[in-house]
Batch of 4 targets.
Target 1
Amino acid sequence: MRILIAEDEPISRRLLENALTKWGYEVVVTKNGEEAWNILQQENSPNLVILDWMMPGMDGIEVTRRLRGRQQDNYVYIILLTARSRPEDIIAGLDSGVDDYIVKPFFDEELRYRLKIGERIIRLEQRILNLARIDYLTGLLNRRAFMERLEAEVSRANRTRGDLGLIIIDIDFFKRVNDTYGHQAGDLVLQDFAKNLTEFCRGYDFIGRYGGEEFIIGLPGTNLEECGIIAERIRQQIETSHTSLDEEGVFINVTASFGITAMEKAYPYTTDKLISAADNALYFAKNSGRNTVKNYKEIVNK
Ligand SMILES: [Mg+2]
């Protein structure tokens, strides 16, 4: 786990760094509140932070106040380092929103165990966040988490004039699977389907379960043509694979229809515009006999 420290005093900073490194932490060292705040605003900054209270410029309390005041995905666990040990000082420190405090000079072992408490809380928090973001059956992103990610990717692509592909997929005649083999078999089919999607997407694509048997994939940096190639690859994989039930010799084959779109040139896009283009393409694929990939440019009004 990575820990950020902010301490203006060189000797104390060195002691902290040495101790943390010895205990196996990866340490990001800063000398004041400004440096710490700059790093904490970056993506993937440490979730565990040790802040000295008294620092020139922005002090530890101010960094805490700013951290607590922003919208954040992950909780940052803050330990305040202070030379002040009077109860009223400690209360003022805790009141600012820190999780814990350590009085300087500190005992190594005490700091070590307090860090373990922090780690435990961060892990718990990450587990809860994951539970809230992941579709229980398939392990993919749930609809809400997918939409959040898509919003972020759309605004990034608008900003950078980049490509962003979107694929919406619906399993053909899924109701028949449930009606014929039961819902448990239906769940197995959905799980296998999700595995196939994961296998045929790239590491930076993001995949969500959009509805019952509807799935959705965001493909950063991908234009319409590339999007079509990937969708077609997935379609073929789905068509040729099957879910086997425990009963001998029972295989369930499904096919799927694909609607694709991509952000190309006509910026700015909105998430709604992108979704509805893919949705219309999917509708067109359904009307074109299913088990096919259609993009929004192919839609023919009949
Ligand atoms: Mg200081």
Note: Residues 41 and 196 are 36 Å apart (CA to CA).
Target 2
Amino acid sequence: MMNPLVINLQKCSLHDGPGIRSTVFFKGCPLECVWCHNPESQSYTKDVLYNEERCSRCGVCISKCPNDAIYTGETMICLDKDKCTRCGTCIDYCVNNAREIVGKESTIKDIVKEIEKDRMFYEESNGGVTLSGGEVMSQDMDYISQVAKTCQAKGINVAIDTCGYVKFQNFEKVMDHVDLFLYDIKLIDEEKHIKFTGKSNDLVLDNLKKLSERGANISIRIPLIGGVNIDDENLEVKKIIEFLKPLNIKNVHLLPYHSIGKHKYDKLYMKYEGEELFRPSDEKLEEIKKLFEQNNFKTKIGG
Ligand code: SF4
Ligand code: SF4
């Protein structure tokens, strides 16, 4: 069994399922959504993050890197990602803490121990743990299933936050130990799904149908993004409603686009491709919420 990389274990989370939760963000995702606000969660390997505002351009990292992966660019200290082996030497030598590694192997024992620390908050708020990402369902499923099973055995509510783009066997491995799936639906139009996420939505929609047929407890999460799935006639939203109507699903959360994670792209030497995207107006959000409610979905704006 492989220990996946964990980016962060966020305590007292209020937007990743009911009550107060601890959210574990695993590293690596099969999709590349244009609007992704956690770009550090996309790759399955560690990343070296560069905080330019802390850098004094002393050049120590350049001289210490054993692989000649760092060099001076026109405006910043640059990284040749192909040469970087994530050895961490530059981080050890940077006195300004301008560089950091993202992603840490964590054993099941360590993760569960950390999750358990907030048990009191879960009990008082009907909260629990949310396994998220990146894409938690694309990690080593023996590991994930063991974490979920151990938490469940300790009486901790377990939620899985997923984009659904994995083989269904992965769901089968874990579903007996999961209390709630937070399942993302972005688009029904396949061409647009490929354009904005890099992958077809066949698997995503098919898995959702199967999960629903198996009686899983599911909340749908829909990112609402101007330039992606918002239009005057709400065509894409109406398609999502039609898809969800026959399924055994009652709760829908509408997640308005935000660009909070945009600054992280620079730190990771990545280009943000979502400059044209925008948050729908409050009126539009209310209009879409009403559409869902008219179709008997319990609908909330926000996580
Ligand atoms: S060692 Fe740190 S402060 Fe110096 S150039 Fe490298 S990143 Fe900047
Ligand atoms: S992590 Fe290692 S290989 Fe990568 S840039 Fe830093 S010193 Fe060089």
Note: The radius of gyration is 20 Å.
Target 3
Amino acid sequence: MDLNTVSEFVPHPDLRDWREGDAWLAGGTWLFSEPQPTVRRLLDLTTLNWPALVVRDDGLEIAATCTIAELYEWRTPDTWTIEPLIKQCCDAFLASFKIWNEATVGGNLCNALPAGPMISLTAALDGTCLIQGESNNERRLKAADFVVGDNRHVLRPGEWLRAIHLPTSALTARTAFRRQSLNTYGRSAALLIGRTDPDGWTLTITASVKHPVQLTFSYEASEPEVREAVLDAIPDELWHDDVHGRPTWRRHLTLTFAEEIRQELTA
Ligand SMILES: Cc1cc2nc3c(=O)[nH]c(=O)nc-3n(C[C@H](O)[C@H](O)[C@H](O)COP(=O)(O)OP(=O)(O)OC[C@H]3O[C@@H](n4cnc5c(N)ncnc54)[C@H](O)[C@@H]3O)c2cc1C
């Protein structure tokens, strides 16, 4: 859609020249999908040529501007186990080919929708977000803590998400994925991922809740213990409620999937 309040497009932005009314532009799939009455300038991040996917000794760095298509087509090193999980999360996108090819991993996190599958992926794989800001300052925080509510994240005005780092320990772990939506190509109503660690397993709950909820369990944790921990961690107001699913159903899916994942990872 035309954004008729936007008067300037900055194709090669100076990232430190942030003004009121600015918006970072990544794939634009959300920005151009609805009115943005407060936006005056669009600062294009995609021209900064951040390398999309960099394998390091300690893991993988995904640039915020890496597209869903690039991530999906990428072949992981042979010793990593998470290629199927990457594909499952990309497939969890309710996306036409236009969105698939333009939407970015960083844009998905910064959009901060409960059903953001890149939020699910990076949170579940113990990701760390690299956040940069105007005065050359940098900070890092867990991907699981980046989104704090429906369409709300931790970035301050003028800050941008530069990259997400996933550690090797998570990239070589066993994982279990469960997802449900109201219809085949619907937005996720619940998306849960389990990941093994040497001492136990980690459960990441997304889509059914307004922001990710992450819990760790020992391999001995029983079905009632997991169920109780999930219910304790999610107060009534944290269950997400919209046309893609009512809270009661999302709660039911979450508890069912948590148990399936427990059985799969502790078998
Ligand atoms: C038909 C349709 C279906 C969709 N389905 C889904 C879905 O299933 N799940 C889902 O989560 N979303 C969905 N979306 C929303 C959107 O397409 C995705 O969230 C997408 O990943 C956004 O990425 P983008 O690169 O296009 O971001 P943009 O639209 O460019 O930006 C999104 C927001 O993030 C900010 N931003 C982008 N990159 C950065 C950065 N690096 N640092 C700081 N801020 C940044 C922008 O300023 C903007 O506020 C859908 C949209 C449409 C139109």
Note: The domain at 174-266 is CATH 3.30.390.50 (Enolase-like; domain 1).
Target 4
Amino acid sequence: MHMQHASKHTTIIPKKGIYSVSGYCLSCRTIHGLPMDEAIHYGRELIHHFQQNKTIDLQPGSDSDPRLSTEYLFGKARGKMFGVLVCKDLSNNTKILRAFSGQYNGLWMVEGWMPPLFDLDTFNSTNVPGEKTIKALGTQLEACTPKSDEWRAIRIQRKQLSRELMQKLHAIYRLKNFHNNEASLFEAYSGTNGIPTGTGDCCGPKLLNYAAVNNLTPIALAEFYWGLDNKSGSKKHGRFYPSCREKCEPILGYMLCGLKRQ
Ligand SMILES: [Zn+2]
Ligand SMILES: [Zn+2]
């Protein structure tokens, strides 16, 4: 079983009070962030759940969806980031929110886990036909003589359509912050390069958006990696990591804006 890794996993945790999620805010011209602090405890609880139950089903039983098995994280797809956000509601009760990055085994929605930053029906109605067209062009491309004029033309067309599809999908995302403002990915993004694929799909943005929409005040956030180490080796099984630089940092400044210090 894969769990032999689990018992030996090492955990690297930043010093108390150091931000685990942060980003530069264009309107305040400063960095906003949240520490890991007590979220680490709940992150470890989640790790324990994975070790015990081998499923991300938070109420595991004999009827658990087999697609939620953690075996998935040790196969071709490799591991994934998981995040835990500790919040306070309006009556000062502690609430724990959980998220996985991107999709889990093809699923965007899993009970007990935070939803994506877009309406799933809207997303699918854009993505499904778009991907179909791009795939069809790929098939045409294979039938052409490589480097012929036709081959070049199809390749350019496919590239163009992929870019357009990505822009259409990015436009569907809605990011809410703690001033109760809402922005698209384009409006929230503080980076100078193009928006990378997968921006907004990490745990941090999912958790913070849900908190902002539901009047919850975030206190601490921790993210850890679970499963087969990623190909580059930058993510290791069972380790805690701060929010990513490429995708999260450029939107977290906006998303954390308006959050009162505890
Ligand atoms: Zn990220
Ligand atoms: Zn700000």
Note: Residues 25, 27-28, 32, 257 surround zinc ion (ligand 2) (CB under 6 Å).
